[in-house]
Amino acid sequence: MSRKIDPYNVSIRGVKLDPQLICRLFGISDMGQQQAIKKLLRAGSKHKTWRQDMEEAGTSIQRSLEIEEGMNTIEV
């Protein structure tokens, strides 16, 4: 059985880093921001082009901004 290579997992000085760990280390909890970071870290390295990943990162950021703006108008 062949081993699947995950382009999001990178080892630096023996430490396995991936977008989830990086976000946790930096205290990033917003899901849209996490998604954008994942796209930006490895833009164009999988089945999508660099441009597609960059555009999708922008879409994730825009959606997070929309949600944040909407949360300011919701009364709980």
UniProtKB/TrEMBL annotation:
- Taxonomy, superkingdom: Bacteria
Species for this entry: Luteolibacter pohnpeiensis
- Protein name as annotated: Uncharacterized protein
